[in-house]
Amino acid sequence: MSQIAINTSQNVNINFNIASVGERMLAFIIDFLIKVAYVIIVLYLFFNILDLGYLLDGLDQWSIMAVYIVLTFPVYIYPVVLESLMEGQTPGKKLMKIRVVKIDGYQASFGDYLIRWMFRLIDTTAAGVVGLISMIASKNNQRLGDIASGTAVISLKNNINISHTILENINEDYVPSFPQVIALSDNDMRIIKDNYTKALKVDDRQIITKLSDKIKSILKLEIDPKMTERQFINVVIKDYNYYTGKEN
Fold this sequence. Notes:
- By secondary structure, the protein is mostly helical.
- It has 2 domains: 3-155, no CATH class; 162-246, no CATH class.
- It contains 10 helices and 4 strands.
- A hairpin with a 5-residue loop joins strand 1 (3-7) and strand 2 (13-17).
- Helix 2 crosses helix 4 (110-118).
- The two termini are 26 Å apart.
């Protein structure tokens, strides 16, 4: 499996496994099936359950087309919306354990996802052959949208040996949540863990809250509201171990 070296803000290169063309195609198929299911359900509701087909009677071809576009609109914006909300993943990518990241080490923005989405018009030309050729020909399996936005799709299935972690033990099948942690340095992570450990011992919730907010601010992260501050910090520490793979 090929790798890509992403340079962090501390000028440290971290190697990531590049998602294979096969993984990306399977993720695309999963997302495609989800979109097909949505269209079938919406049209069934419109014509059969709600019996609104009569609204199309007497309309010209362009008006009918407009109605269908409105009904199926979520399908068209599916990739850019979900990648923005799920930090570089769609349901298909999540199932395949792959993620969109910026090559420069920073978190991809909505603008990056939008550029990738806009270039789909070209990448999907000739039944997706253009995008496929681009992925095969490019060094990092990038389609044209990835090249234009400065992104790549990485695999989250890296093999990690527990003995290679410096801050916390993680399982070999551990799947990280925040690739943005590569922007932190070893010293940053030691400070985070030291303060977190001390706060846990005395149950200092104020320190834990401040620490959590600081990490989110530095890495520009938006997390699931259901995730507690303690869970978040634990995940950040484990993710850093996963991506750096430093030895004791």
